[in-house]
Design brief:
single chain; alpha+beta; 4 helices; 11 strands
C-alpha cells in the first residue's frame, strides 16, 4: 500500500478463454478508480461464445492482447493492441492479423487492423455503436480496403461452379447494418482487377494479327463440323490432312 493506493506488482489471472498477466493499482481514496496493464493470450472461439453468444458466426484461432483496463466512476475502458498468426471468421482465414481495439460502455472499435488475404493484404476498421440506448439499434460498420488479392485462390475458396477467375484484385468496401440483422445491410464499394501478365485483354479495337488468327480458327471449326456431319464427302487425303 503506497499513499492510499493498493499496488499489484503481478497478478496471474486464468479466465474462460484467456490467460493473463497483470500489474496495476487501486486508488482507495477515489474508489472505484483502478487501472491494470494486461498481457493476455486469448482463445477466440471461447471469447466469441461469451460476448457474442447470440450471433451465428463462428470464430477460430488464438491471439495475444496487450493494453490497459481502466475502471473509473461512471464507466470503464479497455484499449490496446492485438496480434494473431491465424484467425478466422466462419470459413475465412486471416493470417498475420494485428490491430488496435477500444471497448467502452457505449461502443466497440477495432481500428488500423491489417491481415493477409489470399496472397494479398487487407486493412479494415470495424465499429459497433451505440450500446445500451433504449430504442436505438446498435449499428455495425465495416470499412475495408484490400490490395493484390489472388483471384485464383479466391475462386478455390468460394468453389464457384462454371467460373474461375485469374489475376489480382484491389478495392474497397463499406457496409453498415443493425447488429444481428445482416439482411438489412447497406453500402457498396469498388474493385480494380489486373489480368495475369501472360494474358492480353480484349479492347474495343482488336489487333489485325488476332483477327486473322480468329478467322483461321473459325474456318477450321467449320471444316471440322462438316466432317462430323458428313464424313463421306471428303477424300481420304483431306481426312488425313485434317487429322
Amino acid at each position: 500500500i503506497e499513499g492510499g493506493k493498493v499496488v499489484f506488482d503481478r497478478m496471474d489471472l486464468t479466465s474462460d478463454g484467456a490467460t493473463s498477466v497483470l500489474d496495476g493499482e487501486v486508488d482507495l481514496g477515489r474508489w472505484p478508480e483502478q487501472i491494470y496493464r494486461i498481457k493476455s493470450h486469448i482463445d477466440f472461439p471461447t471469447q466469441k461464445n461469451i460476448f457474442f453468444h447470440r450471433d451465428r458466426f463462428t470464430a477460430s484461432g488464438q491471439g495475444d492482447f496487450q493494453g490497459t483496463f481502466h475502471l473509473f466512476k461512471g464507466g470503464r475502458e479497455l484499449k490496446g493492441t492485438f496480434t494473431s498468426p491465424m484467425a478466422g471468421v466462419n470459413d475465412w482465414r486471416f493470417p498475420s492479423l494485428k490491430g488496435s481495439v477500444l471497448w467502452l460502455p457505449d461502443r466497440l472499435e477495432i481500428t488500423d487492423a491489417t491481415s493477409g488475404v489470399y496472397s494479398g493484404i487487407a486493412r479494415f476498421d470495424y465499429r459497433m455503436a451505440p450500446f445500451g440506448k433504449k430504442g436505438v439499434p446498435t449499428i455495425a460498420t465495416w470499412d475495408v480496403k484490400y490490395r493484390d488479392v489472388d483471384l485464383a485462390q479466391l475462386s478455390d475458396f468460394l468453389e464457384t461452379r462454371g467460373l474461375r477467375l485469374a489475376g489480382r484484385a484491389t478495392g474497397e468496401n463499406r457496409f453498415e447494418w443493425p447488429v444481428g440483422k445482416w439482411a438489412l445491410k447497406r453500402g457498396g464499394g469498388s474493385v480494380d482487377i489486373v489480368a495475369p501478365a501472360r494474358f492480353q485483354m480484349m479492347t474495343r479495337e482488336m489487333p489485325g494479327g488476332v483477327v486473322y488468327g480468329l478467322t483461321e480458327l473459325a474456318r477450321e471449326a467449320v471444316a471440322a463440323a462438316r466432317l462430323v456431319a458428313n464424313p463421306g464427302c471428303y477424300p481420304t487425303a483431306s481426312l488425313l490432312a485434317l487429322a
